[in-house]
Amino acid sequence: MIAQASIEILKNQLDILEVISHYIEVKKMGSSYKACCPFHQEKTPSFVINANKGFYHCFGCGASGDSIKFVMEYEKLSYIEAIEKLAQIYNVTLEYSNENKKNDDFKILDFMNQYYQSMLNSEVESYIKERGITTEMKMRFELGYAPNNYEIMTQMQRNFINLQNALNVGVLGVDIENGTKRYYARLTQRLIFPIRSAQNKIIGFGGRTLGNHPAKYINSPQTKLFNKSQVLYGYPQAKESIYRLNSIIITEGYLDTIMLHQAGFTNAVATLGTALTREHLPLLAKGNPKIILAFDGDNAGMQAAFKAASLLSLAGKEGGVVLFDGGLDPADMVKNGEIEELKSLFDSPIPLIDYVLNTILKQFDLRNPVQKDACLKESLAYLHQLSPVIQEEYKSWLAQQLHLPAHLIKTHSIQNSITQNLYPKTQSSQSDFYGLAEKIIIKSVLEDKNLLDFVLNYLEPRMFHSENLAYQKLLQGQLESPELIGILLDSKIKPQNKEKLKQQMIMILYRHYDEQKKSLLQDNSLTLREKAFLLRKYQKYLDDLKKGDLILYESTSTF
User: Fold this and answer.
1) Please, is 504 exposed, middle or buried when counting C-beta atoms within 10 Å of its C-beta (0-12, 13-18, 19+)?
2) 297-309 confidence digits (pLDDT tens)
């Protein structure tokens, strides 16, 4: 964690004009500073910077915030990542817990990265060229070479590298014989691929053997800095394209990623010798891109694609699967000049849900009634984990594939899922749940002003509880209020598009009408007839909301 005191020191040094000018061109116009907004397309500047208050606001798209918020949005960083980036720009030393140890770890990894690159020889260069990799890509991905163990250990000792620290970050291994430690280099006689975190820090290495070693590829072991189930190779190099294209291509190997970048597919990354896991989802959630799985067409590749497509679709991700047949992979196709063929494949992948269901269908003999029944059960077990809308969309498709009447394809009602969400087990979790929904609605509108009219059609300030003041500030256009800035800067709150926002609004509406219904029972100002009428009215609204229908608010005076 970064010490709060050092964050405050950094904030005191920030000059918003200086920060924003580091990224875009800013011009003084009259008494203010303006620029073309970097967050939406425009030709006439509507992006205004208030240098005195340290704040910016775009009158076109509504983007606003301080220096930290600008860096977060422009570079798609978390709050901590933005702080570290600004500290680097302003040459401010941030204080961490165990700071010295952390810095030593990165220094060792950076030293080894430079060393590996310096050890490239004619034989390795020849191999790199043989694989079709250009000099530009070799340098961009910092390819290097690990020589034999003796050379590496000698180099580390000459430079006074602490061997125990090098062991801790995965550069070295250790054998213990008769109580004596013998350190050795984990990667030797291998082409080296530095692995960088999403924050662009070296955290490990991958190595491809250039000899006859039975293990073709080896990665650094798991360390406190490196967890291969959370990292995607090439992400720092691909990050800008991922956000610009709103798409990410996930491959199975280092060379596939490098060659795809070389061919212009600069949004390509790779898993690190492991399947795509739930731990990868936070990284894939950044920018919410469409995800294309580019895997080998062999049995292992198809199985990996099935697991990944299942994981992503159940997480609500959009995307598809591209399989490479005939023993080829993306790297081979780039080397062979088949760029247009690759583009065609990536433009029309098999949708994730289609791929999962088709894979399930292929596992059964559908001519056998018993197997057909088992296939239906497995397909429904998967479908029932998806949204009711998607279930309905695939109901007819599945019935057609199985040659069954549609009424046998039972979908789950939205009522159960809404009721579960609306009635958490404890009062504390219920309050947290609704508070989060309110914040998501507000942040979604702050991020996309086109949603304001949509939200206003259904939600009044009285429907907000914990964020009532923030919602009122939003409606009044007081975008610089601390309540709204706090929500904007909270990286845990993820803005949602119109379709996903609808679910949050249904939750808030359901709570409101449920509260209205309960309060009627204590209202002695109404006649029994009036009370019965309103109770029926509210109950109908609640039933409609359970079905997923948004309800326009009506005051009791309209009844």
Assistant:
1) buried
2) 888 899 999 999 9
C-alpha span between 525 and 129 (Å, rounded): 86
Contact of 210 with 175, CB cutoff 8 Å: no
Pairing of strands 290-296, 319-324: parallel
Quote the CA–CA distance of 239 and 286 in Å, as a whole number.
9
Helix/strand/coil for 273 = coil
User: Of the candidates 443, 545, 422, which has an alpha carbon nearest to the alpha carbon of residue 496?
Assistant: 443
Q: Rounded CA gap, 259 and 284, in Å?
A: 21
What's the rounded Cα separation, in Å, for the pair 250 and 205?
19
Counting Cα atoms < 13 Å in the Cβ hemisphere of 81 gives 18
Parts of the chain with a pLDDT under 50: 99, 413-429, 555-559
Q: What is the pLDDT of residues 225-246, one digit of tens each?
A: 898 888 999 999 999 899 889 8
- In b/e form, how buried is each residue of 506-544, taking b as 16+ CB within 10 angstroms? bbbbbbbbbebbeebeeeeeeeeeeeeebeebbeebbeb
What single string gives the DSSP state of each residue in 509-536?
A: HHHHHHHHHHHHTT--SS-HHHHHHHHH
d(CA 207, CA 140): 17
**Cα end-to-end distance, the chain, whole Å:** 56
Residues ≥6 apart with Cβ < 8 Å to 122:
none
Place of tokens 């073709």: 216
How far is the C-alpha of 132 from the C-alpha of 259, rounded, in Å?
8
172 - beta bridge partners? Answer: 185
CB 309 within 8 A of CB 352: yes
Tell me the pLDDT tens digit for each residue of 1-56: 777 777 888 887 888 888 898 888 888 876 678 888 888 877 788 899 987 778 89
pLDDT at site 431? 55
Please answer whether residues 295 and 244 qualify as being in contact, where contact means their C-beta atoms are separated by less than 8 angstroms: no
Strand ordering across the sheet containing 32-35? 27-29, 32-35, 47-50, 55-58, 64-65
- CB-side neighbour CA atoms (13 Å) of 247: 16
Asked if 509 and 551 touch (Cβ cutoff 8 Å), the reply is yes
Determine if the pTM surpasses 0.70.
Answer: no
**CA quadruple 492, 387, 498, 431: dihedral positive or negative?**
negative
